[in-house]
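Supplementary notes for students who missed Thursday's class. We covered one full example, reproduced here. Read the sequence, then the structure, then the short commentary at the end.
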Amino acid sequence: MFCIRFKREKEEQIFELVNRIGKIISDHGFMPRRMKKSELKRMLGLYFGASMYGDEITDFDGEKYLEEAENV
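Structure (token representation):
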């Protein structure tokens, strides 16, 4: 897995850079694929041990508890 962080690039620059990086990776015999948000969250949860079984991780910590409190 490759992870790329952008700090000061504009949105159109990011798109061009990601495409260029994908081309470089494929030129070296790999098949790059962009992960969907749910796939990325699952992989990070497994990596950091937050979700041993690949359960869905919320976007914000404590989000499900707020939803439960609002439904009471």
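Commentary. The chain has three helices and no strands. The mean pLDDT is 82. If anything here is unclear, bring it to office hours.
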